[in-house]
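In response to the reviewer comment on reproducibility (Comment 2.3), we provide here a single inverse folding case reported in full, input and output, so that an independent group could reproduce the run without further information from us. The structure tokens appear first.
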């Protein structure tokens, strides 16, 4: 015999339990059919009572089996159902033993007692206890109850009472049955409004209640014979209601029906759904419709007038309550939505929208300080956005300590914050100084300590003095943003807006548009400057230099437009243009018998661009260029911006066989020993030192030491800016590897370069021969 594991036993038991509700539903359906097929009334009533008793048993079993949180509710439903079943049994017993059933009887007492107990269970299931937010649902239920009660009274109860009115116990019972149905209908309206509707058990129970109310109502309105021994179609509703109660209790979802914990506003909103509004509108119109029908039927007003008037008055009061709830809901939601719309969810500060509202509301001049976290992208990229969000929260806390009640503190976007207030009550210089002091203290984030710097830009709505109107709020924020961008390059990390920032920005935008057009319309050209091997005194390579032949007739050097391109994604297509055209031209020279290496400059943004390696590989393969014939020149400052990232990118290029040179060496802040750690093969000494060698001994000493150290480290050296014969001779004596400059050859177009190379080689060889002779 194989023993099952406890987990397997639980799983098998859960499968069996889960199937019980399906079996019960099937057996209940069979019972309903059998009720109408058995030949005698006694057997039919026995089947009816048996189905009802099974519903009670299923409810108790389901409650014990599933152990719901609100067991009292289900036990109350079982008790109410049991009283109805007991009423069925008593009714049939009296009928069998006496031949007729008096009215009212003990069965009626059991029936009527079952309604409030059953209803109490429904109430416990839908609502645990009274809350202020329940008022709307209760009012909805009351409106439905009043309207349904009016219809029942006028068209069912009053005709059955005749002209005698309510008299004796029989009259009270005649009124009690419709009253209980009205009570259940009100609970049903409250039931359907609950958020627990998602549970199948809840929906089954709702259908059972609805079926019970509909069957009772149809039975009340119908004209039936005094004999109750015949089976009626009305019995279908009651017997199916029993089955649905049992299925709802056995279904596993009944354990998930817990007491809802719904916020007040969400609760009120649930009571204003479209179906609810339609039902409430129809219920409110019940009184005038009934009045119209009775007038058309020419019924005496004394019989129905007071009931209609009382119901109409009750409906008016209840509708006023609902309108009050609606207005309160709209006001509360308006306040909350305004708060949400004006709040940054991460930091809890105001957002850009709230800042602009404050600026529009300020009657006088306003001042805005924009605070931007420096290198925040590096924090996100290195440690992840989760830690970046923690940093933003800590920054917000520190800025709260700077801003008093008269200053609005806002987070504009990303890592940008702003302080806004009336100009007369703010001291921008003091605030900026205080902000810098607070950022001087390192931030404790998790288990790390980070030193974070910030730049501050200041702008005011006051006129600039040249006739310009005061800035609008969005323009003011834009000016503060321009100022903070300027602050990043300032020593103090603080900058104040001035008109030149607008001009710089507009010129950059115009230039970007024109540069995009230049790429598309072939306005860019490459010029090539020869590089001479100082040992063989021959041209061995060229440096590709980009020129922009502007439509206005000027020729722009890279320094005029590359800084703007570097701040956007436009630097990528520019670099691709230079690589492809330079290597294509080298292949053309090769076919003409001219073998040259070629050097291409890449920017800081290119160096840390993931696509650079792919661009280089594609270009080398397309134009059949050996990697060793391509040199990529990187400025010293670019390489030292992020030495780790630069080392990674340059190592890949070096592994490919591409030569890497440090351009403009000596203008940065790094030592040669640190440069040696980078995978580079060449240093290009900046023209500033080369040009001053002839008359400045310090420059000559710098060049001499650089050449000697570079040779010791296995690096080749190229001197830029060779402008005369003396400088070239000195460099040869220092055993410098290569040189380029106007004395050797100026940059020229691709078609003129072969002739220039021949002329340089001839000239240098002649001069060398003369010196030797």
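Designed residues, in position order:
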């Amino acid at each position: 015999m194989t023993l099952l594991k406890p987990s397997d036993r639980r799983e098998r038991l859960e499968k069996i339990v889960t199937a019980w509700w399906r079996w019960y539903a099937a057996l209940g359906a069979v019972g309903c059919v059998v009720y109408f097929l058995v030949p005698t009334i006694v057997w039919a009533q026995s089947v009816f009572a048996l189905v009802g008793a099974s519903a009670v048993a299923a409810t108790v079993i389901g409650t014990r089996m599933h152990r719901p949180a609100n067991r009292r509710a289900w036990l109350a439903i079982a008790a109410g159902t049991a009283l109805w079943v007991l009423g069925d049994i008593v009714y049939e017993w009296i009928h069998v033993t006496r031949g007729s059933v008096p009215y009212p009887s003990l069965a009626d007492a059991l029936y009527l007692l079952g309604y409030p107990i059953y209803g109490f269970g429904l109430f416990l299931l839908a609502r645990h206890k009274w809350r202020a937010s329940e008022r709307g649902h209760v009012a909805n239920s009351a409106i439905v109850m009043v309207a349904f009660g009016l219809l029942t009274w006028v068209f069912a109860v009053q005709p059955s009472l005749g002209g005698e009115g309510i008299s004796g116990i029989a009259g009270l019972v005649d009124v009690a049955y419709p009253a209980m149905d009205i009570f259940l209908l009100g609970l049903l309206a409250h039931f359907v409004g609950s958020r627990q509707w998602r549970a199948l058990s809840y929906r089954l129970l709702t259908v059972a209640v609805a079926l019970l109310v509909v069957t009772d109502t149809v039975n009340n309105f119908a004209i039936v014979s005094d004999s109750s021994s015949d089976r009626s179609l009305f019995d279908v509703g009651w017997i199916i209601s029993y089955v649905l109660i049992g299925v709802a209790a056995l279904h596993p979802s009944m354990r998930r029906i817990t007491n809802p914990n719904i916020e007040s506003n969400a609760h009120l909103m649930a009571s204003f759904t479209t179906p609810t509004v339609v039902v409430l509108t129809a219920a409110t119109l019940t009184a005038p419709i009934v009045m119209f029908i009775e007038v058309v039927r020419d019924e005496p007003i004394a019989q129905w007038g007071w009931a209609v008037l009382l119901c109409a008055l009750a409906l008016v009061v209840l509708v006023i309550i609902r309108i009050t709830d609606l207005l309160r809901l709209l006001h509360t939601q308006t306040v909350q939505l305004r708060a949400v719309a004006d709040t940054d969810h991460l930091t809890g500060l105001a957002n850009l929208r709230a800042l602009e509202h404050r600026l529009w509301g300020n009657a006088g001049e306003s001042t805005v300080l924009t605070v931007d976290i420096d290198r925040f992208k590096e924090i996100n990229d290195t440690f992840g956005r989760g830690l970046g969000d923690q940093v933003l929260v800590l920054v917000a806390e520190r800025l709260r300590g700077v801003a008093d009640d008269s200053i609005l503190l806002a987070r504009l976007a990303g890592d940008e914050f702003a302080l806004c207030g009336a100009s007369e009550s703010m001291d921008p210089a003091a605030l900026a100084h205080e902000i810098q002091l607070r950022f001087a203290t390192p931030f404790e984030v998790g288990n790390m300590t980070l030193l974070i710097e910030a730049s501050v830009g200041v702008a005011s709505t006051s006129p600039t003095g040249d006739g310009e109107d005061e800035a609008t709020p969005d323009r003011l924020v834009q000016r503060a943003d321009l100022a903070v961008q300027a602050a990043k390059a300032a020593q103090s990390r603080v900058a104040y807006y001035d008109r030149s920032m607008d001009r710089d920005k507009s010129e950059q935008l115009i230039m970007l548009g024109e540069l995009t057009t230049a790429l598309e319309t072939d306005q860019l050209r490459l010029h090539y400057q020869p590089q001479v091997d100082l040992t063989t005194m021959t041209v061995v390579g060229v440096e590709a230099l980009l020129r922009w032949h502007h439509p206005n007739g000027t020729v722009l050097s890279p320094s005029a437009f590359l800084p703007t391109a570097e701040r956007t994604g436009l630097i990528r297509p520019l670099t691709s243009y230079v690589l492809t055209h330079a290597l294509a031209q080298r292949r053309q020279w090769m076919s003409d018998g001219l073998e040259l290496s070629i050097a291409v400059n890449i920017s800081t943004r290119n160096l840390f661009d993931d696509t650079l390696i792919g661009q280089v590989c594609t270009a080398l393969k397309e134009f059949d260029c050996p990697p060793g014939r391509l040199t990529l020149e990187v400025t010293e400052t670019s390489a030292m911006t992020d030495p780790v990232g630069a080392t990674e990118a340059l190592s890949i290029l070096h592994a490919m066989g591409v030569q890497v040179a440090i351009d403009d060496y000596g203008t940065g802040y790094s030592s040669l020993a640190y440069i040696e750690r980078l995978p580079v093969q060449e240093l290009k000494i900046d023209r500033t030192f080369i040009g001053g060698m002839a008359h400045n001994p310090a420059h000559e000493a710098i060049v001499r030491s650089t050449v000697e150290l570079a040779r010791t480290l296995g690096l080749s050296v190229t001197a830029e800016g060779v402008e005369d014969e003396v400088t070239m001779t000195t460099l040869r004596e220092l055993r410098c590897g290569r040189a380029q400059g106007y004395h050797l050859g100026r940059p020229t177009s691709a078609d003129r370069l072969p002739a220039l190379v021949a002329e340089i080689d001839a000239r240098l060889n002649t001069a060398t021969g003369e010196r030797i002779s």
